[in-house]
Amino acid sequence: MDLMQLTAVELGKKIKNKEVTVKECVEAALAQMDAVEGQIHSFVTIDREGALKKAEEVQAKIDAGELTGPLAGVPVAIKDNMCTEGLLTTCSSKILYNFVPTYTSEAVLNLEKAGAVIIGKTNMDEFAMGSTTETSAFGPTKNPWNTDHVPGGSSGGSCTAVAAEEVPYALGSDTGGSIRQPSSFCGVVGIKPTYGTVSRYGLIAYGSSLDQIGPVAKDVTDCATILEAIASYDPKDSTSVQREEYDFTSALVDDVKGLRIGIPRDYFGEGLDEEVKAAVLGAAKVLEEKGAIVEEFDLSLVEYAIPAYYVIASAEASSNLARFDGVKYGYRTEEYEGLHNMYKKSRSEGFGLEVKRRIMLGSFVLSSGYYDAYYLKALRTKALIKQAFDKAFEKYDVILGPAAPTTAPKLGDSLSDPIKMYLGDIYTISVNLAGLPGLSMPCGIDSKGLPIGVQMIGDCFKEKNIIRAAYAFEQTRTYQRPAMAEKGAE
Amino acid sequence: MAKQYETVIGLEVHVELATKTKIFCSCSTEFGGAPNTHTCPVCTGMPGSLPVLNKQVVEYAIAVGLATNCSITQYCKFDRKNYFYPDNPQNYQISQLYLPICRNGGVEIETESGGKKIVGIHEIHMEEDAGKLIHDEWEDASLVDFNRSGVPLIEIVSEPDMRSADEVIAYLEKLRMIIQYLGASDCKLQEGSMRADVNLSIREVGAEAFGTRTEMKNLNSFKAIARAIEGEKERQIDLLEAGKAVVQETRRWDDNKETSYAMRSKEDAQDYRYFPEPDLVPIIISDEWIEEIRSRQPELRTEKLERYKAEYDIPQYDAEIITSHKKLADIFEATVALGKKPKEVSNWLMVETMRLLKEHDMEPSDLTFAPENLAKLIGLIEAGAINRTTAKEVFEKVFAENVDPEIYVEENGLKIEADDGALKGIIEGIVAANPQSVADYKAGKKKAIGFLVGQTMKAMKGKADPGTVNKMLTEILNS
After folding, report:
1. CB pair distance less than 8 Å for B90 and A239
2. Least C-beta-crowded within 10 Å: which of A9, A449, B162, B219?
3. Which domains does chain A possess?
């Protein structure tokens, strides 16, 4: 049996029971990478030597009884926007092509404390700007279900690495849907936690007020377990929240009796693919049959989420990305005359088109005379969207809808029409604007053979409600692997 | 008749706060480390790093705000000021624009005519300092040192309420005194822990509308500020008299050449694209917190001055000099607390200390001697162990090297000979050797004793108390 077919928790158990060594797990992961990377390109950096060395250290600690957690010894892939000390961290951008951080991000440190073995850094849309993983400076990642299609983005590499069974689990980040949408396109499970749950220290910022790190894995149990490991109050992140509890796995119960699930009519209107709609409503039906109370309602303001998001995220990004200037680290143009020419050329050559588009958009909305009309208005819209959700959560424990309007589009289709790509984020974006937790999990396969995802949204700090609903739904299904995963290491 | 002009001046004063660590990270603020040794991912703007606010910065800012009669913004936020420059590692400065911590205050100053006047404070905001660029002429390159990057600053923005260089200096001295008393900064202009930018415009006397203003930077001393104000005032008047317009611009003062140069005009002014700093949460300042800081506010100068007069019975003039600098007041109180007479302590500070400060071109904040040593010195005089002339010499040592006067006097054999027998012998010798003076004295020329006292002191190499010598001489001569 291929070890990488197991979930992270299953593999952790085998390691703990001495059925398998950490080194064997790492070797299995590397073998699968060797088999599939050429077709899908999940990784920017694969740290073979580092991972094998780490495997021995972790094994020793497990043998000594120092590491006993469920993830001890299990290999993991990290999205390439989280700093890892001594390991290249590029954000899939030319401007950071040579950047080796001097410190490790808090979420990754938490995983290391739990005994995780980092096997590599995954490909992403450049600086997490994009919904397809095509804007990476190092070439696109392809969907393991069909390599003519995109994996979604921006955490595309993390999701394909899990779907193609290169690693049992990965970390992604989600600013407007960047964990949930590619999870949906790749047929895996991903959670974006409540804003402030996982430290952003060491996560290279895109939209600071929206960014949140979360897990990607094959099932809900893994996601809850990983979330428990990475979530922490971090005094180094001022937006980190001291939560009352950091327990997520106790919600892994197959019981949704009395759980109130709201279906926002606004999420099922124009633009939603019929097959996606049917599969998502099918999931709602299953939960209703299991005892949940399912009801339709009007969420409102959905159409304002995309413009508000692109104003806020781009504004923050235009400032966050200012530090990449060729002075201190990263790419510097070859020839230049004077400081300003150096800035201009380094940034023009170092950033890709989508990043430049958002920097320009963000700079524009913050500029004198436009601030009130765009940025302030977007902030007010954000506050209203939060209010709309607050109202909904007075009545419901979980809001259920699609993660994306369609299944994975073909490579190239979105790049030619950015507005279309932006509209693809319609169901995920408002969750970030409101700071809520959201989960995406598979709920079917469409006629093209591509996975369909269902999204479950909870109130702030109520991850357990969506984990409970997702776990119960998962019990009615069997996990479906892409053919590539199966063929891979054979 | 020539037109009469009025100068309108407002100041932007940057003050470096005396915190041990930087505003958004735990790096040391200590001056003078090797380049880039007081740095971390946060203050070098490394990707993924995040700022965490130093609470002490907020407390100092509130303390300064309360002492300058400002209202405290109880829901206050930081904003990002975006601009590209290599001394600014993130290419934005974390500052405050929309909700600065203090607003609508003012301080009272004395005008040249001796009247009182309030200079309004528009706002005080908190921000981070930038790093330092070092231009390497030989390599045709620039190096950057981030040790100062992230050192906390407050910027105190005045209303355009000042009308002359004297008022500007009075305002700055007042601010400096308040901030030093609060312990929030040492406010040294030369070292840059206090920096002032001068906004100046002129208008005809009686006019209501303000003229076009310029902003003057690079002012490193009160003298430079005064000179720059005079220079800029004249430059603007000359322009207007010649029928030209003043251009709104930032100018750099060159104190050596006593002239200023345009740095950038309003047209080139950057759009800083300010927006709320998303990496920091709003600061909620409760009534309790404000009251706690208010209750901890140290005694400020005016209160101290009144107390010195009442409690220590020292004259207004003395009290003014001693309270003119917190360091002097601290030494005064500590020395008096060691049991020394307030007037005696005050004399040492007002006369000898001030003289030596002037001689060495030093500020009171540079004083290093311990109050214990001043107390010991006064103790030696009181005990008659040294005379005042010797005491002044010893004080110079105390001032310069903080020596222990008791040990110093002992080791250098400066003590007055307490052995009356020896002194008596010497006096008798002097009397015998100067028959003419003795005769003069006995003939009623009482002043002649002065010469004999002098001769005795000379013979004793100064180690005698002139009072004792005088007394013994009188006895011998009258016997």
Report:
1. no
2. A449
3. 3-253+473-488 (3.90.1300.10)
